[in-house]
Write a structure and sequence with these properties.
mainly alpha; 130 residues; elongated; 5 helices
């Protein structure tokens, strides 16, 4: 890279910051949440296989156990973060109007928060009875 003219500052090169000044943060966050989603989805599938065909009271007892509730809450959080990052990338890549882009980003953020909040609320209500 020596001898090449660049507009990037030495600090941005060291921190791997591109034009958006976010560097590889989105890349790694997307990969980490993707891996977490894979592991948590397997646990979710196991939970669902455990309750298929069981009576309602047994399903509630199984899904309201602390481990099951923790798995479900972590799954909702991880999926929401992963979804938010993915939607942001799509909006930034394909929406060219700055006003529409901002509106879409705000809308997608509220949507992912709502999805996570509703899911977590349902799990907590099941876990704590009510």
């Amino acid at each position: 890279m020596a001898g090449k003219s660049t507009m990037r500052t030495p600090l941005s090169r060291v921190l791997f910051l591109g034009a958006a000044h976010e560097g590889t943060t989105h890349f790694w966050r997307q990969r980490v949440t993707g891996a977490a989603n894979a592991i948590l989805s397997i646990a979710f599938i196991v939970l669902m296989l455990m309750v298929i065909g069981r009576p309602y009271a047994e399903v509630v007892a199984t899904l309201s156990s602390p481990l099951a509730a923790l798995i479900l809450v972590l799954l909702f959080v991880s999926v929401a973060i992963h979804m938010r990052i993915g939607m942001q990338v799509v909006v930034e890549d394909y929406v060219h109007s700055e006003g529409l882009k901002l509106l879409a980003l705000v809308g997608s953020t509220f949507f992912t928060i709502a999805v996570a909040a509703i899911g977590i609320f349902a799990v907590l209500k099941l876990a704590f009875g009510g």
